[in-house]
Please model this.
Amino acid sequence: MIRPSPETAAQIAEGSVAFVERKFGILLPYNPPSLILVDAIVDKIRATGASEHQASGLLLGLGCYVGEVFVRNARATWRLTAEMKMAKVCRFTIVVALPGGIGCNPIGRVFSRFNGEAGEGLAAFYQATLEPARRSPDGGAI
Model:
């Protein structure tokens, strides 16, 4: 498995996109509406009874895919969690930084969805994350 870093996140996402297409026949086109499909895939994985440990590779890849949707559609960049001062609130080493310095944790959000902890879907997460980024010149963390 490739170790997640700002330099490898896109490659990890590409691997999960290829796997999802082979396994489920679902094409993920790196756009915000496709995040609804990611919700369905994560829910399907959870419904199999797989543990988080068993599903962690694909969940990481799907989290990187969600992050790449931010990168490709919202001018975000991958950053180290410590660099964004989010290490205490994130269990993963990379997060996405939006214009204005706002950080968000798409990988953690996918794991939260899998564990039934995310109240809203990933498309709503995307929209909610962009709202403060549009308003806040000084940034923050989401």
User: Anything to note?
Assistant: Residues 9-135 form a domain with the Four Helix Bundle (Hemerythrin (Met), subunit A) fold (CATH 1.20.120.1090). Helices lie at 9-24, 35-47, 52-74, 106-114, 122-135. The beta strands are 77-80, 94-97, 103-104. The mean pLDDT is 93.
